[in-house]
């Protein structure tokens, strides 16, 4: 208190302008504190404004106090008047007082520094009580201050359907762009999310509507009701002179009651993005999101694009990609968007996922990563994760980015992508299972990819019953989705039901007759199943049809060669000359220099030439592959070890091949893919115990994605296992595996039937009573 009194005495001695200076400086500091506290504690926006008003109200009180306490003109504060020059004052006579400064006057008693400080403290208390009362009423859901969450209208993690904005302007694309902006802005919310376009398209399919049907307000309400979602956002954009009015409202899906409505004006088209930004911030605040979080969100123009034209192209691309499934058109629109705004990060993401050119994909991911400061926080973590997984191969960084994403935004896609790293790259099957289950729980069972990859995780863990349950859930929720068909087909194949697997693919082919991309994939799937069962001529017909179906930008040689099965004559029939002729014809059809660098099938050519005994050609292709590789990441190193192993086998160096295959297996996510090559190398090295163990592991290890390696190796593995067990005198297992070969190739081509008959004779010789 003594220090405070000394401070007051010091101020009392100052002149009026000095008091004003001290007050203004103190007020500025107080306003900075108010701004900081408001931001840190998430107080209402009006707290700094009210603090300013209170400081302005208090200013006259301070000035009046200084005036009364010091007198006009300032000077040293005193109780007695100064002597008049030229007069003497008797010690006994009282000194004359300055007018208006009577010792016991009303002004002197009211305008004191004590009272001024009390008034300031009272105003601070009033502001504190008001802010605290507002926050309390907001949290309790009382009166107009209560949020929709505190009132129980919405809950955390609820999803909302966003209807297409009604467009009342001359620009036909402005409504689509406004809808996209609103979706992007609301994606920064930490408490609610907008139902994805894929989810909406799925519901529309159930309603027997085309997935690209315009989603007006009435249809959006029906979608929300059908999918069990609580609310719908409807908006419109209207031209007003040279400017625009953007409005939005939140409506209860079931009853149609208006829960919130507001609007923002834009003087011209350049202000549309900020207007939508402010509108979504108001909505998030009304829903009940933390004010601190809402204010901490980056401005919409900084996480999208400052170019409205680029945004329109991006919006068209998203619609073509997500709703229509037209990848070619989508890639073209995304390319136009990044040409208009070279820092448009999310457009680079779209381009990466839709371009058939791997070189374009990798460059687009790199550009998105370079401009990731233009992304929302969740999108930034997503891009970092994808970049480290696909471009640099740094899985640890990818995992860290996905975990950071999950911490701020528990969307099903985040759990899926992280789970996929564990399942398909790190062989962390239990971790993947937990992540998919969390994704299902967080997304209210609406995460299609969570269910489909959960099937794969359960298969990898040997939990066939749980895998079947997950597949049943996937079928129940997404009966027409192509992903469901592929998962169901792969599941049937893992159970040895190849007829069921084929039926699934044929049904998908019939449903997707309008989709050339899906048509090509289904034909490839049928070819793989045919080759697996020894029907090589049928497989070749399917593959020719697949190439014809994917004519145009998608008929890349990389895809075609990986699917053609050109080495089939050499692999299954020993006809190396025929296989080489087919490869030469393919190289004429697709010259290497006509293929983008990253899409050139060097790896496939090395593989083929090595197995065909063309070691010189294999080494030449490997050298070019290593020299041209732009990204020598985990995937590159894995493939490099495989190819070196194949060359070592071609040069009769099985011990070296074993080492290379082991290194490849260490980097391989697939638990069965390296095993047959490894077993083959052991066999050629004379290490029959190791060969038998590797073959056995190969045919018994559960894996959902094994149809491709099985189409080349499964029959040969069964045949060799029967032979090895017969040599060991284990007739039971020999008969078992010979029988597997007979069942698998019962309808094989005539050229393969002698091997089936040999297996049947071995069975009869080993078990005469059969």
Describe this structure in words.
With 770 residues, this protein is mainly alpha-helical. It is built from 37 helices and 6 strands. Strands 1, 2, 3, 4, 5 and 6 form a 6-stranded mixed beta sheet that branches. A hairpin with a 5-residue loop joins strand 5 (243-252) and strand 6 (258-266). Helix 29 (602-611) packs parallel to helix 31 (634-650) and helix 30 (615-628) runs antiparallel to helix 31. The radius of gyration is 37 Å and the shape is elongated. The N and C termini lie far apart (108 Å). 43% of the residues are buried.
Give the helices and strands, then pairings:
Elements: H1 2-13, H2 16-41, H3 46-70, H4 106-110, H5 113-140, E1 159-162, E2 166-168, H6 174-186, E3 193-194, H7 197-206, H8 217-226, E4 231-240, E5 243-252, E6 258-266, H9 272-287, H10 291-296, H11 300-303, H12 308-324, H13 327-340, H14 345-354, H15 358-370, H16 377-392, H17 395-408, H18 412-424, H19 429-442, H20 448-460, H21 464-477, H22 482-494, H23 498-511, H24 516-532, H25 536-549, H26 557-564, H27 568-573, H28 576-589, H29 602-611, H30 615-628, H31 634-650, H32 654-667, H33 675-684, H34 688-700, H35 707-728, H36 731-744, H37 753-766
How many strands? 6
Shape by Cα distribution: elongated
Q: Tell me the quaternary state.
A: single chain
Could you tell me the mean pLDDT? 81
What is the alpha-carbon Rg in Å? 37 Å
Kindly list the characteristics that best describe this protein.
single chain, 770 residues, mainly alpha, six-stranded mixed beta sheet, 6 strands, 66% helix
């Amino acid at each position: 208190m003594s220090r405070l009194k000394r401070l007051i005495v010091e101020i009392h001695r100052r002149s009026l302008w000095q008091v004003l200076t001290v007050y203004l400086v103190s007020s500025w500091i107080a306003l900075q504190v108010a701004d900081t506290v408001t931001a840190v504690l998430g107080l209402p926006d009006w707290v700094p404004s009210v603090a300013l008003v209170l400081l302005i109200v208090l200013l006259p009180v301070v000035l009046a106090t200084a005036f009364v306490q010091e007198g006009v003109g300032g000077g040293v504060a005193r109780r007695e008047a100064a002597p008049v020059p030229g007069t003497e004052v008797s010690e006994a006579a009282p000194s004359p007082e300055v007018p208006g400064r009577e010792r016991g006057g009303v002004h002197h008693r009211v305008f004191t520094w004590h009272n001024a400080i009390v008034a300031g403290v009272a105003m601070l208390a009033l502001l504190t009580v008001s802010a605290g009362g507002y926050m309390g009423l907001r949290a309790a859901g009382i009166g107009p201050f209560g949020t929709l969450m505190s009132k129980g209208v919405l809950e955390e993690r609820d999803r909302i359907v966003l209807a297409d904005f009604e467009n009342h302007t001359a620009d036909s694309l402005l409504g689509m762009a406004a809808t996209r902006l609103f979706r992007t802005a609301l994606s920064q919310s930490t408490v609610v999310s907008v139902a994805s376009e894929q989810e909406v398209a799925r519901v529309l399919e159930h309603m027997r509507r085309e997935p690209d049907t315009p989603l007006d307000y009435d249809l959006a309400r029906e979608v929300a009701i059908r999918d069990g979602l609580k609310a719908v956002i409807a908006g419109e954009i209207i031209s007003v002179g040279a400017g625009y009015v953007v409005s939005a409202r939140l409506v209860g899906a079931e009853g149609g009651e208006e829960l919130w409505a507001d609007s923002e004006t834009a003087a011209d088209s350049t202000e549309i993005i900020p207007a939508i930004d402010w509108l979504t911030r108001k909505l998030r605040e009304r829903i009940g999101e933390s004010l601190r979080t809402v204010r901490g969100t980056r401005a919409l123009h900084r996480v999208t694009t400052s170019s409205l034209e680029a945004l329109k192209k991006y919006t068209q691309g998203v619609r073509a990609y997500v709703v229509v499934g037209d990848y070619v058109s989508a890639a073209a629109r995304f390319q136009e968007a990044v040409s208009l705004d070279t820092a448009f990060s999310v457009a680079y993401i779209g381009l990466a996922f839709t371009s058939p050119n791997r070189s374009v994909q990798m460059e687009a991911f790199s550009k998105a990563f370079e401009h990731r400061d233009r992304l929302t926080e969740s999108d930034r973590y997503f891009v970092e994760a994808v970049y480290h997984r696909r471009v640099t191969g740094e899985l640890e960084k990818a995992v860290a980015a996905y975990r950071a994403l999950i911490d701020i935004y528990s969307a099903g896609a985040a759990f899926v992508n992280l789970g996929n790293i564990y399942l398909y790259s790190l062989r962390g099957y239990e971790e993947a299972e937990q992540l998919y289950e969390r994704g299902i729980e967080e997304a209210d069972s609406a995460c299609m990819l969570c269910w489909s990859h959960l099937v794969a995780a359960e298969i990898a863990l040997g939990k066939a019953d749980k895998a079947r349950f997950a597949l049943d859930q996937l079928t129940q929720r997404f009966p027409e989705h192509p992903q469901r068909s592929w998962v169901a087909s792969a599941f049937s194949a893992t159970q040895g039901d190849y007829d069921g697997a084929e039926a699934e693919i044929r049904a998908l082919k019939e449903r997707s007759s309008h989709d050339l991309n899906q048509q090509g994939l289904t034909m490839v799937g049928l070819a793989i199943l045919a080759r697996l069962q020894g029907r090589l001529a049928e497989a070749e017909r399917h593959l020719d049809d697949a190439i014809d179906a994917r004519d145009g930008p998608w008929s890349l040689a990389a895809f075609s060669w990986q699917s053609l099965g050109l080495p089939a004559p050499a692999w299954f029939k020993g006809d190396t000359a025929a296989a080489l002729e087919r490869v030469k014809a393919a190289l004429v059809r697709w010259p290497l220099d006509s293929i983008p660098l990253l899409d050139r099938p060097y790896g496939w050519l090395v593989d083929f030439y090595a197995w065909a005994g063309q070691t010189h050609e294999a080494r030449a292709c490997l050298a070019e592959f290593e020299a041209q590789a732009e990204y020598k990441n985990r995937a590159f190193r894995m493939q490099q070890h495989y190819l070196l192993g194949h060359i070592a086998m071609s040069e009769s160096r099985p011990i070296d091949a074993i080492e290379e295959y082991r290194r490849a297996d260490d980097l391989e996510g697939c638990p069965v893919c390296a095993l047959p090559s490894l077993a083959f190398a052991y066999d050629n090295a004379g290490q029959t115990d190791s060969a038998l163990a590797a073959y056995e592991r190969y045919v018994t290890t559960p894996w959902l994605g094994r149809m491709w390696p099985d189409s080349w190796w499964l029959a040969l593995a069964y045949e060799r296992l029967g032979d090895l067990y017969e040599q060991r005198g284990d007739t039971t297992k020999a008969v078992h595996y010979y029988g597997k070969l007979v069942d698998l190739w019962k309808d094989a081509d005539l050229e393969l039937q002698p091997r089936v008959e040999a297996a049947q004779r071995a069975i009869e010789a080993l078990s005469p009573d059969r």
